[in-house]
Amino acid sequence: MAKITASVYTSHIPAIGAALDLGKTQEDYWKPVFAGYDFSKQWMKDNTPDVIFLVFNDHATAFSLEMIPTFAIGTAAEYQIADEGWGPRPVPKVIGHPELASHIAQSVIQDDFDLTIVNKMDVDHGLTVPLSLMCGQPPVSNFAWPCPVIPFAVNVVQYPVPSGMRCYKLGQAIRKAVESYDQDLNVQIWGTGGMSHQLQGPRAGLINKKFDSDFLDKLIADPLAQASVPHIDYVREAGSEGIELVMWLIARGAMSTKPPKLAHRFYHVPASNTAVGHAILENQF
Ligand code: DHB
Ligand code: FE
Questions:
Q1: Structural domains of the chain, ranges and CATH numbers in brackets
Q2: What secondary structure, in 3-state letters, does the chain show?
Q3: What is the per-residue pLDDT across 185-203, written as a single tens digit (0 to 9) for each?
Q4: pTM
């Protein structure tokens, strides 16, 4: 049977993608950000899964305000890299896993979660920046991500957004779905976005280190308590875009109820307008 081996949590700041693509990673400003992922890149090489289930948010790139699915699962064979205004990032296209994605859709929808099925979607920085941070830039000789990816888009851009508790419970349904797939696949689930940040209005530039640190503590050790935090607290404490953090609860909900092993934890301010947060949790079998 398939199993979820680990979960990865990381910010998806678009300027990180630009710094990578423009060869700026060794500049003083960016060095400490990328240093936080040195461990992670090696860990990814040592623990390459068969599939990544990647929870992210689309930033009005593939979905416009004309159509806003709360939860959308990618069941396509492949996904092109979106052009967000400066041309597509020079990274490999994303290869999907239609069989596992369709199985998860079947199981999770029958478990009472409404998912939108997406058979065509260009993926933006919300998905490509986490892949770049964790996998590095694939070599020209083998220009591909290390494994297939199932993109799972969550609406955290246009209100109303899903609650942390719904995200956590959805994660539990995703674990059940993965564990009922009849092939021996190692699956990682990634929760991306955050941490505290606000890109607009009078509070633009808001960062809340205390909130972020408490969020990471609870995410790791008491995720149900974090899942009980209402969305308005994120907006108030972590800024309007801090709400992206509810996506981390989907990944956490998909982990075993047995306490996971904390393989890595990293936090750094600033990167662009946000705090960079990152953690890796391994399931203990
Ligand atoms: C920034 C962060 C985001 O999460 C995003 O989607 C866009 C911009 C920023 O820090 O600039
Ligand atoms: Fe974002």
A1: 3-282 (3.40.830.10)
A2: CCEEEEEEEECCCHHHHHHHHCCCCCCCCCHHHHHCCHHHHHHHHHCCCCEEEEEECCCCCCCCCCCCCCEEEECCCEECECECCCCECCCCCEECCHHHHHHHHHHHHHCCCCCEEECCCCECHHHHHHHHHHHCCCCHHHCCCCCCEEEEEECCCCCCCCCHHHHHHHHHHHHHHHHCCCCCCEEEEEEECCCCCCCCCCCCCCCCHHHHHHHHHHHHHCHHHHHCCCHHHHHHHHCHHHHHHHHHHHHHHCCCCCCCEEEEEEEEEEECCEEEEEEEEECCC
A3: 999 999 999 999 999 999 9
A4: 0.98
